Amino acid sequence: LQKLIHLLQATDDPLIQEQALITLSNSAAFSVNQDIIRNLDGLSVIGGMLSDSVPKVKEKALNALNNLSMNIKNQEEIQVYITQVCRNVESAPLNSDLQLAALRLLTNMSVTGDYHHKMINSIPCFLHLLSEGTERTQIHVLKVLVNLSANPAMTKHLLRAQV
Fold first, then answer.
1. d(Cα 71, Cα 31) in Å, to the nearest integer?
2. pLDDT at site 163
3. Whether this model's pTM surpasses 0.70
4. In the chain, which residue ranges form alpha helices assigned H by DSSP?
5. pLDDT at site 162
6. Under 8 Å CB-to-CB from 73, ≥6 apart: which residues?
7. Biggest alpha carbon–alpha carbon distance for the chain
8. How far is CA 11 from the centre of its chain?
9. Residue 80 has what pLDDT?
10. Which PANTHER family match (predicted)?
11. Confidence of residue 26 (pLDDT cuts 50, 70, 90)
12. Domains in the chain, start-ordered, CATH in brackets?
């Protein structure tokens, strides 16, 4: 895992980055690896890939963070990327794999109310995707909206959102 994280930092080759991110994502399916990746500063390395100009690299980074977000301690570190993930949802092509990967991560990050406030500005976008997206996109958006709606503090934001 340490070598994969170092490889991500050392290369600019998108194909190598994608493969390293896929391997880290698969490794994160095991809870013991989630802690190891966090302790190796892997969350910030993977999070840094969200700024990459290559959509497939961003998508693989989102998938890795999604798997890593099943851990409360990891969520505490991943939450710094929520605004950027929301921007990815808004700027990604409609119904794209990149958009869906970002929505999956937001679903996990919105299970508790801890980070809902970081998603408020994206509520209009979520509602737009609900009306314009494919069924697959709509399902992912609904998961986020259901999580947000479970928080009474979000009620006014959800009801006042301009679509």
1. 8
2. 74
3. yes
4. 2-10, 14-27, 31-39, 42-48, 55-68, 72-78, 82-91, 97-109, 123-132, 135-149, 155-160
5. 83
6. 35, 38
7. 48
8. 22
9. 98
10. ARMADILLO REPEAT CONTAINING 10 (PTHR15712:SF23), ARMADILLO REPEAT CONTAINING PROTEIN (PTHR15712)
11. very high
12. 1-78 (1.25.10.10), 80-162 (no CATH)
End-to-end CA distance of the chain: 43
Q: 37 φ, ψ to 5°?
A: -60, -40
Query: In this predicted model, what pLDDT tens digit does every residue of 93-142 receive, in sequence order?
Result: 999 999 999 999 999 999 999 999 999 999 999 999 999 999 999 999 99
The Cα–Cα gap between 87 and 64 comes to: 18
Rg (CA), the chain: 16
- Tokens representing 139 are 């399902």
The rounded Cα 129 to chain-centroid distance in angstroms is: 16
